[in-house]
Amino acid sequence: MSQDKLEFLERSREFWNPKKTQDWQDMGVDLVIDRREGYYLFDMDGLRLIDVHLNGGTYNLGHRHPELVEVLKVGAERFDMGNHHFPALARTALAEALAACAPSPDMKFTAYGSGGGEAIDIAIKTARHATQRRKIVSIFNAYHGHTGLAVKTGDERFSKIFLSEDREGEFVQVPFNDLAAMEEALRGNDAAAVIIETIPATYGFPMPEEGYLPAVKSLCDKYGALFIADEVQTGLMRTGELWGITKYGVEPDILVTGKGISGGMYPIACVQIRERCGGWLRQDGFAHMSTMGGAELGCVVAMKVLEIVQRPEVRAMVRFNSDFLRAGLDLIKSAYADFFAGIRQHGVIMGLEFDHPEGAKPVMKHLYANGVWAIFSTLDPRVLQFKPGLLLTQADAEDLLRRVEIAVDLARDEVKGKRRRAA
Amino acid sequence: MSGRINNLVDISQSPAALRGRADIVLENAKWASHVFQRFDREATMRVVDAVARTAHDGAARYAELAVEESGFGVVAHKRIKNEMTAMPLVDYYRDDDYVNPRISENLKIVEIPRPAGVVFALTPSTNPISTLNYKIVLAMMTRNAIVISPHPAVRHCCVEAANSLAAAATAAGAPASSIQVLAEPSIPLVNEFMRSPKTSVILATGGSAMVRAAYASSNPAIGVGPGNAPVFVDSSADFEKAAARIVESKSFDNSVLCTNESVLITVPEADSRLRRALGSRGGHLCSDEETGLLRRFLFHASGFNVEAIGRDASWIANQAGIRVPRSAKILIAPIARIGVEEDLSREKLCPVLAYHVAKNRTQAISQSRAVLRLAGAGHTAAVHASDEQTAFDFARAVESYRVVVNAPCSQGAAGFGTNLAPTFTVGTGYFGRSSVGDNIGPQHLVHWTKLAYNSDRSEKFGDFRGVAARFDGPLPQAPEDGVPGRTRNDSPPGGGIAQSGIDREELRRIIAEELRAVLKG
């Protein structure tokens, strides 16, 4: 490590976040991201990494995608964040564009947050207003963000420390893929909404069983709750379809998109709301306010993101990438079958499972040392989140597989020991 | 569902947007070519035959659409060209193998075909569908992906035709995106495609400016410039046959093939008989006054009058103010001089033939050289003669890489009616500032990796007949876990690991080998 980097990390500990800074050093990842371009990150000491973390799809289209940089630059000649009190050109234009490609037919309204957490809060408040109920059902180990309401829907790991966990029994959690538990939670006809990530990311992308999501939607309809699809990580073509939920045949009542919709260039998150669920927008439009929510520059970027991801070529690229990477990963998996235990996949959303309670951590470390940045699943560290970009090139996809094989080999030896296993 | 994007901030014409557009199309093509290279010959030919069949079936329809959209050419002739570039083109190359390795026991060399990858193909307005068919067939035969950039004047019919071939290709198993077409080809956009490092080779057929731009792009290019074919009718020729062939060629699709005869050169002893023969075949011999009218109509200060391209003889005569019989198929304009001072000695993509009588054979040859010096170097020339020494002397002298003998030149130089390779891209070679002097064929879209053994007799050459060629075929479809019918979640229940009896190192070796094969495609 360079002297510069050592000194920088010291300042990071001192002024930014001592524990987080140190944790990464302890995990063997001394990454300080400096330059970034396409799907490459460059550490401040020059190491190049292929990014398959993408901050949960924030960098779906790559870092500093040239068309997004251009639209932001040109947009800044005319717009700034705007004044959230007033009807605004860019906010309305993006809302129209989102309505035109919404997963449900009458999903007309869009409310804006400045980030995913705020958007989730808006979604929950919207559902509570529409149903006049308070209870929110989510999935064990779910993660929907860190703001006031969002944090309560998730694992207590992020709420207890701030004394912010739910103590009123308003936030109920049930196991994923467990319809009986879901029905139990809804049976009282007192739930405002079920909020669910189409494929729970931070939990390591466990895949919904066939029929699970449509059945949850039916239960919502039966017991008068709304279905909130958290598409922050599964939307924007990552499944090969604009919204992942569409692939499962569900028309949600509310949809939240964040991360990728910003292009990684200007913070924005959107809540799409079916007409019949958006009562508060008619009753009291000032009820939720956000100075930076739906900043017009963010809207300008988001419209370009929406336009790019819907190009037919992007769909084809996702198909090529998912098929090619899967074929390669399958082979690596069979070569290291005693360690590389499973692959969860839908499009370019992938979770790689390793046979060790924290198996994804050494894989992450060795990938890092071999020029790939992928992160373990916080809430299931057996699983590595493997999230290649929509536009990954054939050459980079091939290089990625080469590096994964090297890293899995090293991680396997570290976890299982170098000696040859008895036949 | 596709969203309607309200462009509050329009960057569509910015360099970033144009480059982005080129990049994504070409990267798709790169993916397609990568997968295509896993195909064996049988799978490849299935695609080729399907594309050719579809091109054949669409020949008449697209002939009509092309004439309608461009306003020139002859539907019946375009149909023939469209058909020729479908199944007969495939049959011409059917026995050539661009997929399997070639083994030469004598040379102790094995050659492995390596497709170019991504072919960026520009197609002209004059022969839009036939050139498109031809380039796509060549690309498919050689397992290349191709991106067609049609001439804007005919883009609608080209986009439709290319999409129909693309659909046929994928239905026959070709990777998606093997055939793509630019719906909105603008000069700045086309330049981005040509300049992109993702373009493997540019196949440029069209005007000089575009061909030069292809060469200036920094990418490998095979460009073909304009023609301006001199046709020499020697005193040893059979005048009746020569006249018939010249009229047939000049009137074929109203002379839009760049291989059409431009200037007829003959000698005094043949002159009167040749004029009579031409006249009886539908050639209208213009008077001096008529020639003057034609010259003024066809050539403006800025160059050839594009309005006249591919129009028939009556239309041109009428526009020029000349009265001709309805039977006139071509207009013959006698000229006294050849060179910069005589516009009619330039290329004319219409059924107007300049006619010049040289003093003798030697001068005829030097005048023919002058025609090609003016324009069309490296492209095409023709000779009608029974004396082979004359034919040889002519061919040796003119700066052209193909000299058609005793045949209609439009068709003959393009390989129809001669045994030249059928083509819609005529390599103009070094004379014409191009990289290839042959009729372009599939062989130009493949290079070969050569495994060259030690030539010493004591070193044995390997037996490659039994070596696996490793054609893995299309990529298997990845699962979409949880989607009905698309699930393949193979996570072991509870994260347990299946025990295998095979030694791990052995297993790893076998799989690493397979992995390498997959990665290499």
What does this 3D model show about the protein?
The complex is a heterodimer of chains A (423) and B (521). Helix content of chain A is 40%, strand content 17%. Chain A has 15 helices and 15 strands. In chain A, helix 13 runs parallel beside helix 15 (394-416). Chain A is globular, with a radius of gyration of 22 Å. The model of chain A has no long low-confidence stretch (mean pLDDT 95). Chain B contains 17 helices and 17 strands. Chain B has helices spanning 15-36, 41-57, 59-70, 75-84, 87-93, 128-141, 155-171, 187-195, 208-216, 239-251, 268-280, 288-298, 313-320, 361-374, 388-397, 409-413, 504-520; strands at 102-104, 109-115, 118-123, 145-150, 179-181, 201-205, 221-224, 229-233, 261-266, 283-285, 299-300, 303-304, 330-334, 352-357, 381-384, 403-405, 446-452. Chain B starts with 14 loop residues before the first helix and ends with a helix. At the A-B interface, helix 4, helix 5, helix 12, helix 13 and strand 11 of A face helix 1 and helix 17 of B.
